[in-house]
């Protein structure tokens, strides 16, 4: 019999393990002396670098739509914690440093969470949709991503109206799995996030236009079967283009996918 981890002994053990990880993250933050972005500005910086909208209520397989409604509440509570944040040169954006713990006391509800290839529910679930949107906008900028976690190469849901390449998502858990990026440029950047009845909306702004444009696309996407298990393969690619000349400055693979598929692909 496989030996259980301490966190698998019961709900009490899981809570102890989570709090231990949270304390370790706080200790690391203090030790590393990271300059976190804290300043907000009501006025928007003048130049839109990239904007994107993300549909809040999406049908995901057999997931209870109640969790999608609750996610809408959760996103509406978290967005004001970020809107207007300015990331000055040398500063690091941390999602959890700004949003904080998503607790029921603060009004957060049970939303969709993902763990070990399974969909579950948890207070504050759905926050990864916000970091997904932030990450997608960041990929269209020169900002440096310093912490980014994936859902461990899992493809949980079919592509219902997918607009962005597979493999460009994020995974977060308060506070030890964070989403962070560093402004290593010489100009300010600003994040604007808000929700309406339909969408989570975002803008990445700055003080002046960028000399480069960034394009994200998928290559070599396919399903393959290995020992009776279906996997999704392909690469998410990023191309940087000089605005003045139109020449490609670089092309990079930002994610090489080999993700186990958890839905029926026979009709695809």
Write structural notes for this entry:
This protein is α+β, with helices and mostly antiparallel strands. It contains four helices and 13 strands. It has helices spanning 11-32, 65-82, 95-99, 128-138; strands spanning 47-55, 85-87, 92-94, 110-115, 118-123, 144-147, 154-155, 180-182, 189-195, 199-206, 212-226, 229-242, 248-261. The strands form four sheets. A four-stranded antiparallel sheet has the order 1-10-9-2. Strands 7-13-12-11 form a four-stranded mixed sheet, with no helix packed on it. The protein has a three-stranded antiparallel sheet with strand order 3-8-6. β12 (229-242) and β13 (248-261) form a beta hairpin. The longest helix is centred in the N-terminal third of the chain and has 22 residues, at 11-32. The chain is globular and about 55 Å long. The chain starts with 10 loop residues before the first helix and ends in a 7-residue tail after the last strand.
How would you describe this structure in keywords?
268 residues; 13 strands; 4 helices; 4-stranded antiparallel sheet; alpha+beta; 4-stranded mixed sheet; single chain; 21% helix
Topology:
Elements: H1 11-32, E1 47-55, H2 65-82, E2 85-87, E3 92-94, H3 95-99, E4 110-115, E5 118-123, H4 128-138, E6 144-147, E7 154-155, E8 180-182, E9 189-195, E10 199-206, E11 212-226, E12 229-242, E13 248-261
Parallel strand pairs: 7-13
Antiparallel strand pairs: 1-10, 2-9, 3-8, 4-5, 6-8, 9-10, 11-12, 12-13
Cα(first) to Cα(last) distance is 38 Å
Shape: globular
Strand order of the largest sheet: 1-10-9-2
Strand content: 35-45%
Tell me the number of helical segments per DSSP (H or I, 4 or more residues long): 4
| Topology order in helix (H) and strand (E) letters | HEHEEHEEHEEEEEEEE
Give the proportion of residues in helices: 10-25%
What is the structural class? alpha+beta
Estimated radius of gyration: 19 Å
- Give the uncertain stretches in residue-range form: none
E-strand count: 13
Q: Biggest sheet, in brief? A: 4 strands, antiparallel
pLDDT averaged residue by residue: 91
